[in-house]
Amino acid sequence: MDKIRIRGGKALHGEVEIHGAKNAALPLMAACLLTDQTLMLGNLPHLADITTLVHLLGQHGVTISMNGGAPNGGHRGRVLGLRAARITRTIAPYDIVRKMRASVLVLGPLLAREGTATVSLPGGCAIGTRPIDLHLLALERMGAKIELKGGYVHALAPKGGLEGAEIRFSSVSVGATENILMAATLAKGETVLHNAAREPEVSDLAHCLVAMGAEIEGIGSDTLRIRGRDRLHGAEYNVLPDRIEAGTYAFAAAVTGGRIELVNGRPEHLDAALEVMTQAGVTIEPTARGFMVKSNGRLRSVDVTTQPYPGFPTDLQAQFMALMAVADGASMITETIFENRFMHVPELMRMGADITVRGNTALVRGVPALHAAPVMATDLRASVSLVLAALVADGETTVNRVYHLDRGYERIEERLAALGAEIERVGDT
Ligand code: EPU
Question: Does the Cβ of 133 fall within 6 Å of ligand 1?
Fold first, then answer.
């Protein structure tokens, strides 16, 4: 298993190009199941999770073509043509779903198009129990019969297909909103989703569905109104830039006292995080190509509570904690989305951070310096928070279990090295 070795203490300078968002790309790829025509997706990131979903879609009978030129002559990134001319299998097996929970996003499209779907229950993961009850309740409201048997969800649509329904989610769920949004595009009649997630990734999916012929009102709001269609058609669509990748590199500039331009970064998708950074003493400026982050490395402590969009994202909480670990003063970081998303805390403490956790709140007392140590983490964002900590720690830190980073950050060691970090990937010996 590869490791990453980092010698801390270098301020990062330069520019970094933000890639397509993992969490937008995954639902967009699942949307190909809704039509027998080709969905051409551009600006896809090169990430392990994308490969996992390509594998799953292949099992459903989707043919996948690589294409050199981006749709609309636009972005660089990877371009894939996905064509579900005929769905040959409606089972999403445990072997794939356990590797990546987002596999559950095939449930809504398969059920809407084929009238039946059998999808492994994803089970818990490193950040929480993460049930899918909201997805299933909503599909039941649309007339589906759901049975849980042998670790699988067996879903069956009524004879004439899924029926439009008025659905009020009891709490905000990105995945449930996406799954039901996709299902509703092929349902009979109108579906209204109340308390829908407003994440930019949800809106990206909705815009792509509209390009495929779906009728959706209220995109970007918490009420989505979808009028079902008999069929959708192919489309060309570019995945939006990754706000979490942009936020992570912005934090890298902030914590090292550097200056980085986030090319393709969309500051409007990071309002809450950029506001907090400004309060911490970091300068953010829009540029023609994205935005610039500048810091002298002296950060002030700020309290943060994670919230659904447009609040501070849970996917930046671990990284922000690495910043607060070396800030002036004390910061309270409250995690409201996932019940177990403090797995980075003991590892940061092994590097000298002073953190006390009570329930879903971490009290982070800034220390003058962190110190190198061998560390590892059990999820993607926790792993990258250790990379940020290592960038400012004294000495040489080894971050183990790099495969977590490869799920969400494309060639992170090369890109940080290009910004001046002393970092290398080493194979296991
Ligand atoms: N929840 C339920 N029941 C459900 C669905 C969700 O109780 O049926 C709970 C979850 O357990 C969690 C909360 O609701 O406590 C929010 O979960 P949500 O469904 O919004 O999360 P998700 O769709 O599973 C996506 C991202 C996550 C990101 C969350 C929150 C993808 C592929 N994943 O997950 O990304 O943290 O939204 O913004 O889009 C990551 O990229 O590192 C990552 C974990």
Answer: yes
